Amino acid sequence: MLNIGFVGFGKSATRYHIPYLLNRKDKICIKEIYSPTIDQSAIQQLDLQTVKFCDSLEELLTSAEVEMITICTPPGTHYELAMKILKAGKHVLVEKPFCNTVEEAREIFDYAKKNKLIAMPYQNRRFDSEVIAAKEILTSGELGEIFEVEFHFDRYRPEDERPEGTVYDGEFYGLGIHLLDKAIFLFGLPEKVFYDIRTLRNPEKPDDTFEMQLFYSNKKIILKVNQLIITDYPLLRINGKRGSMIKYGMDRQETFLKEGVLPNQTGFGVDEQPIIVKTFDGKSIQEKQVETPIGDYGKVYDAMYASIKNQASKLVSDKSAIANIAILAEGLKQETPFIK
Question: For residue 260, what is the DSSP state?
Fold first, then answer.
């Protein structure tokens, strides 16, 4: 059994983390939670009546039972909290963005490695449905050599209701870290990157729109986020020399969670919109529809369990986590557009 704790009990913890542990009580147990504010309704909904809610961070850090702590607090607090948790002798899982700078990330990973601890970012979007499907299709080789890929995270939110913040509070860091990790996970590290980062709705607030283009020796990957797109556009499109994969509509996990449907309930995450695959067999174009798999963000916790208890390799390597932050940090160094 892996006994864990949480720092933070807001939307991140109660929507994107704890619900997935309801299916994993046989091997992961939430023992203690520290948060300045407590949502009593969430305690009931998530069956946390036996969990201890600490009065201070120190109380959680000194708990003899807790082996690992998940950080679900604002990004600017991640580095300091991660170092405190590691220095308390506990493994740590950190919500995205892992931290703000490469230097902070390296310090966290170096300390963890020296002290035989696991520190890892919560890159749950590796388990979005379209990524799971893409990995299977890429492994099959049916699309041939891949030459162009597009990842989109488009929504229509004409009113910018976000609070003012720093450059680290924009969509480039907040969503870019997910899209970039998907690309790195499926295709590896790029050789060059094009950046175009903008604020379209309210110039007084952080960026809300961006495009990155990742250049490889034989392919290009486009990553785009925009909050003013009202028409449908593929969430993911992968083009190969023998065919293409197209997926419309975002992974359904977040939608179900917002509606109060939990991962341990029947039908959770089902997406009726299929994956479309078109291929050329040398004579004609063939089209098929593939059932969209159900995503599962809880697999990040399965991976942490395997690393801590069975010494398995980490799901997100230190190298890829640092590269992700380095690529994002480079995008903030000068006015865009530019290529680095």
Answer: T
Among the listed residues 292, 264, 295, the one whose alpha carbon sits nearest the alpha carbon of residue 277: 292
Residues 6+ apart with CB under 8 A from 270: 252, 294
Rounded (10°) CA dihedral 189, 190, 192, 195: -90
The contacts of residue 111 (CB under 8 Å, 6+ apart) are 83, 86, 87, 117, 119
Taking the whole predicted model, whether its pTM rises above 0.85 is answered as yes
d(CA 135, CA 279): 17
Q: Please report which helix (H) or strand (E) contains residue 123, including its range.
A: none
Which helix H or strand E contains 55, and what residues bound it? none
**How many whole angstroms from its chain centre is CA 328?**
14
Nearest to 186 by CA among 140, 141, 135: 135
Q: What are the pLDDT digits (tens) for 33-57?
A: 999 988 888 899 999 999 999 999 9
- Render 63-76 in DSSP notation, one character per residue: -SS--EEEE-S-GG
Give 265-293 as a DSSP string: STTTT---SPEEEEEE-SSSEEEEEEPPP
Strand order in the sheet with 192-198: 285-290, 275-280, 243-247, 236-240, 146-154, 220-226, 209-215, 192-198, 338-339
CA 253, 256, 262, 266 torsion-angle sign:
negative
CA–CA distance, 103 with 85 (Å, rounded to integer): 18
In the chain the beta strands, taken as DSSP E runs, fall at 2-7, 28-34, 52-54, 68-71, 91-94, 119-121, 146-154, 192-198, 209-215, 220-226, 236-240, 243-247, 275-280, 285-290, 338-339
Rounded to 10 deg, the angle between the 176-187 and 129-140 helix axes is: 20
Token pair belonging to 133: 């499907």
The CA distance from 225 to 9, in Å, is 28
pLDDT value of residue 336: 85
Taking residue 275's Cβ as centre, other Cβ atoms within 10 Å add up to 22
Burial class of 215 by CB neighbour count within 10 A (0 to 12, 13 to 18, 19+) = middle
